[in-house]
Amino acid sequence: MFRLQGSKVLAVDMTQDAVKAKNGSMVAYDGEMAFKKLSGGGEGIRGMVTRRITGEQMTVMEVRGQGTCWFADRASEITLVGLQGDTLYVESSNFLAADAGLRTGTSFTGTRGASQGNGLFTTTIEGHGQAAIMSDGPAVVLRVSAQYPLTVDPGAYVAHQGNLRQSFQSGVTFRTLFGEGGGEAFQIRFEGDGLVYVQPSERNTIAGDV
After folding, report:
1. Where on the phi/psi map is residue 101: left (φ > 0), alpha (ψ -120 to 50), or beta?
2. Is there a contact between 120 and 145 (Cβ–Cβ < 8 Å)?
3. pLDDT, tens digit only, all 210 positions of the chain
4. What are the beta bridge partners of residue 160?
């Protein structure tokens, strides 16, 4: 159902089924398609729509029909992730599309920064099927194991899956180590067994200069 055309365009072949995608990400389609903007709160896909994740809102659309639909967003690189009953946690700005059969929602994963008390809410995608995530530059997949925990700059974090524990370390980040940061900063530490997706570029985050 999901396939890449190049590294920056997602093609989804549909036979009267549906896909959930970032609003406005459709760039072309053939056949017969119906588009529906999803809004509201609660469980499932509607739980994704109105939450805030780094100070921005995200809207999702449902595409249903017969034919092929192509998706892209700002020439971002796209990575396909297969889920086998597990859960993928992905930043709002890095979500592109998911099989309609996958359950989607929101998870509170911790607090970014002790003094500001900023919360980190992450999109969750779970079940059996495929999801497409985006990154600024080709995503790198890093393995976390019991012997090798991983520390990530939050501006480079894209997504993670597996049996991972996530914690935040405030007061320092990679830039502040070299005197380039300012204000309160933090890192994200992952422990356990799983995969972390990072991008070779940093976004602005809400808990200090990172």
Report:
1. alpha
2. no
3. 899 999 999 999 999 899 999 999 999 999 999 998 875 433 444 444 444 433 445 578 899 999 999 999 999 999 999 999 999 999 888 999 999 889 887 776 655 443 333 345 678 899 999 999 999 999 999 999 999 999 998 889 999 999 999 888 775 555 555 555 544 467 889 999 999 999 998 765 544 333
4. 89, 196
**How many residues make up the chain in this entry?**
210
- CA-based end-to-end distance of the chain: 37
Residues contacting 64, CB < 8 A, separation 6+: 14, 16, 17, 18, 19, 33, 34, 36, 100
Q: Does this model's pTM top 0.85?
A: no
CB-facing half-sphere around the CA of 50: CA atoms within 13 A? 7
The amino acid at residue 67 is G
d(CA 62, CA 60): 7
